[in-house]
Amino acid sequence: EKPFDFDVQIDRSLSTLMPFGYLGYLSPIQIWLITGPPKILVEKTAAIKFVNVALNTNPKNKIGVTAFSSQAVNIRDLTNDKESLERGILSINVFGTTNYYDSIVAGVDKLDSQGRKNTEKIIIFVSDGKPFAINGYQKAIEAANYAKDHNVKIYTIGVDGILHVNAPLLR
């Protein structure tokens, strides 16, 4: 079976501390309606599950991990070491705002430099919201085009309730 090279990108912005599927706050006293675990925990759990399924399906698959908020941070280079990947995922802490552009470009560059020739390259992009900057939407489209130009596919996963995930952009 033909292997794949993946970069799993995990949103670690401050909003991921909010509960999964929360409905917002009740004005004016801002009481959060808690409906689930913190989104960062949901993201980490999903990423670990993905690592296990991808490597159990084909041990020759290689996976990297990138955490992103205001900037992208390489957590793990491409590897098929499950334990190292899991430790890396669990080490991600929450910080900053949401910057899609830097993360996608860094992931494409990682897959280009570390990926294997003639191996399909894929970013698994996990986020709970929208890019933060005024031009964040346009920069996200630029990053997606950069990935396309480098033959890197992006699969997106929105982690939140329907009120907060930017589904049109993640498509």
Question: What is the structure about, briefly put?
Answer:
The protein is of the alpha/beta class and 171 residues long. It contains 5 helices and 7 strands, in the order βββαββααβαβα.
Topology:
Blueprint lengths: L3 E8 L13 E2 L4 E2 L6 H19 L4 E7 L3 E8 L2 H9 L9 H15 L5 E8 L8 H14 L2 E7 L8 H4 L1
Parallel strand pairs: 1-4, 1-6, 6-7
Antiparallel strand pairs: 2-3, 4-5
Helix pairs in contact: 1-2, 3-4
Tell me about this structure.
This protein has 171 residues and is α/β, with parallel strands linked by helices. The chain is 36% helix and 25% strand. The chain has a five-stranded mixed beta sheet with strand order 5-4-1-6-7, with helices on both faces. Strands 2-3 form a two-stranded antiparallel ribbon. Strand 4 (62-68) and strand 5 form a beta hairpin. Helix 1 runs antiparallel to helix 2 and helix 3 runs parallel beside helix 4 (136-149). It is globular and about 40 Å long.
Structural class comes to: alpha/beta
Q: Taking all residues together, what is the mean pLDDT?
A: 87
Number of distinct beta strands: 7
Please report the distance between the alpha carbons of the first and last residues.
28 Å
Q: Which radius of gyration do the C-alpha atoms yield? A: 16 Å
The major sheet is characterized as: 5 strands, mixed
Task: Describe the strand arrangement of the main beta sheet, using strand numbers.
Answer: 5-4-1-6-7
Order of helices and strands: EEEHEEHHEHEH
Number of helices: 5
